[in-house]
Amino acid sequence: MVLLNGINTQQIEIADRGLQYGDGCFTTALLIDGKPQYWPSHQARLENAVKALAIPFQEWKDLNDWVKKACADIQEEKAVLKVMITRGSGGRGYSPKGCSKPNVLITSSTFPQHYEIWAKKGIQLAVLRSRLGHSPLAGIKHLNRLEQVIAKAELDELNVEDGIVCDMQGAMVETTASNLFWRVKNTLFTPRLSCAGVEGIMKMHITKCAKECGYEINEVEAEPSVLEHADEVFITNTLMGIIPVNQCDSYTFTSREALELIGKRLKAC
After folding, report:
1. pTM for this one?
2. Fewer beta carbons below 10 Å: N end or C end of the chain?
3. Whether 28 is catalytic
4. Is the pLDDT of residue 177 over 90?
5. Distance (Å, rounded) from C-alpha 178 to C-alpha 236?
6. Longest alpha-carbon distance in the chain
7. How far apart are alpha carbons 93 and 75 in whole angstroms?
8. CATH, domain range 2-111
9. What is the pLDDT of residue 176?
10. Choosing from 86, 141, 203, 238, which is the catalytic residue?
């Protein structure tokens, strides 16, 4: 299913700046029985992104109507909904001058079933050679994902489920498509994302629930070697939820203490 500004279509203008320059933003939501989970957080992410990118989009009521229209056609118990906002067509070269009609593209796809296997069995990570550059757009889920594409291409050559990506100084940022947490005793650590990476919606909710469960939360700049001292490691995003990590390179982890407590808290909210 594809909706462009609420209309079923498989076509978009070649001149759309999302295609030409990655000029736009997106969010990806888990659908359960046709209902997008954490939708207010997803809309807030889009609102913050269009403001940061100076995209003149204000039609939030229309967007919500189009999301409902897209969800109404989905029959699966679990599915994936992706909402993109581009600056639309116009402008000369990189200049956005004259771009006054943003486009909203909504697509749905099947839920990745391997996430359920990962949640039960846990996964193995590797520290990737690929790096993320520092950016003034850090935290925003904009449409330019070339760094993630390169990281995924490297991951495809390895016999592990996911990989940790560091910044140019060697500090951990995230995995190829999720946020990273590790626990040492009663403290949860997660990479500081002020210079690179994406502020995940599930990360935000997990941070809140972890505090309610009595854990201290520290956002830090840290190299992968700190995982040697971790009691527990897990990764998160809105589709996969919380995934336990069994191993990262030569480091192994067996505890799921925080994961289980926070998971129960999330379900209760």
Report:
1. 0.95
2. C
3. yes
4. yes
5. 5
6. 56
7. 42
8. 3.30.470.10
9. 97
10. 141
